[in-house]
Specification:
The chain has about 400 residues and is of the alpha+beta class. Helices cover about 55% and strands about 15% of the residues. It has 12 helices and 11 strands. Strands 1, 2, 3, 4, 5, 6, 7, 8, 9, 10 and 11 form an 11-stranded mixed sheet that branches.
Length: about 400
């Protein structure tokens, strides 16, 4: 019994070998085409990776610093003037149930600090001078980088602790009994230098003197300008509602309450929106890479018409030809995708290392990057594959 001869089927291994043979014949063109895809994928992976690493660092920072720090500051009066909090505000806030600690600072407007007494008065460098409570360090969870924090003795004497930014501007790297600054027309000994304070950045550019020393030497009246309050983690909102009325019972509307960790979270949200914009630009680069793959495959079909005709003459079906060129485009895009994921991961790791962040590249980004390139490879190679499959064998063999 005789029947129609069925065309042979290509095994998956044969399909890959046939598709790879076309790529090996034109290595430079393949490299450049894959590079276009790789740049697009690398941009997208790096954008997501850097953003994720930044958020991981922020989460670790908030875990370390806590999100239960609230700050209380005077607002404006009804007539637009700067309000003042009572001197007893810190003590009253400390008596609120669920408040773990309360401390504060007071900005000394008319007091400036200089490296020495020969610096012109107008060149203060933007360094603020603040009176500080002894419990400030524990409440804001700041650390002394060098020297020591104020104590009951030094807080009454001409001693100062510098924030990290203030120390840099004054050219002071370490504290010591011989290290002095000219503060408010008097010499103060630098007893300590703080590490950067992340939840209270205003302290970084400040020179901190004792509360009593400020009263004795500068006529400070004891009104705090910022009260820092550490409360129980699960009672933040409840305590927040009480702070204004407690800090200034006579004018609670002239008090502003904020949560410093909210500012960090808002910054993270802004970064996330910016990440979306960069992802869009990476998508455009990926689209350009896909166009490059399509262009490469169209040229490949034109250049290999004789090869296509010979294969058709030897029994290859249109489906075989179509599958061959689709496989080539998929391999080409896949090479770019894998290379782009690797390049994007390296860029993320290097950037995170320079910022002292943990390196985090989500698995879904790497998998999605390769999947996106395969999809683009399929779309970009579809037209050239159909065009190659429709070539009649005689016409293809007759082509130069």
């Amino acid at each position: 019994m005789s029947g129609a001869r069925r065309p042979g089927r290509l095994a998956p291994g044969d399909v890959l070998r046939v598709g790879a043979a076309g790529l090996r014949a034109r290595p430079m063109r393949v490299f450049l085409s894959a590079l276009g895809i790789a740049i697009g994928i690398a941009a997208m992976v790096a954008v997501v990776g850097i953003s994720t690493s930044s958020r991981a660092d922020l989460a670790a920072t908030l875990d370390r610093l806590g999100t239960n720090l609230l700050t209380v500051a005077p607002g404006d009066t009804l007539f637009g003037d700067q309000a003042a909090m009572p001197e007893a505000a810190i003590g009253m806030i400390a008596r609120i149930p669920d408040v773990e600690s309360a401390s504060g600072t007071a900005l000394l407007d008319d007091v400036k600090v200089y490296r020495n007494d020969r610096i012109p008065e107008e060149e203060s460098g933007g360094i603020a001078v603040r009176a500080a409570h002894l419990g400030l360090l524990d409440t804001v969870r700041a650390r002394v980088g060098h020297g020591a924090w104020l104590n009951a003795a030094t807080a009454r004497h001409p001693a100062v602790v510098l924030g990290s930014g203030a120390a840099d501007r004054l050219g002071i790297g370490a504290a010591g009994p011989d290290v002095r600054v000219y503060l408010g027309g008097r010499w103060f000994t630098v007893v300590g230098v703080l590490d950067p304070v992340e939840l209270a950045p205003e302290l970084n550019d400040s020179a901190l003197v004792g509360w009593e020393a400020a009263k004795q030497r500068f006529g400070f009246e004891g009104h705090p300008t910022t009260v820092y309050t550490r409360v129980a983690e699960d009672r933040v909102e409840a305590v927040r509602d009480l702070l204004a009325a407690t800090a200034n019972p006579e004018a609670p509307n002239e008090v502003e309450v904020s949560r410093p960790s909210d500012a960090l979270a808002a910054k993270a949200a802004t970064d996330q929106a910016f990440t979306g914009l960069l992802l869009g630009l990476g998508g455009v680069a990926l689209l350009v890479g896909g166009v490059g793959v399509a262009n490469t495959m169209v040229i490949s079909v034109l250049e290999r018409r004789a090869e296509i005709g010979l294969r058709r003459s030897l029994g290859a079906t249109r489906g075989h030809i179509r599958l061959q060129f689709l496989t080539e485009s998929q391999l080409l895009a896949g090479l770019g995708g894998v290379g782009g994921v690797a390049l994007g991961t390296v860029v993320t790791a290097v950037y995170a290392l320079t910022r002292d962040w943990p390196t985090v590249v989500p698995v879904w980004v790497m998998g999605g990057g390769v999947a996106a390139t395969l999809l683009i490879g399929a779309v970009a190679g579809l037209y050239p594959a159909i065009r190659a499959a429709r070539l009649p064998p005689t016409e293809a063999l007759a082509s130069p």
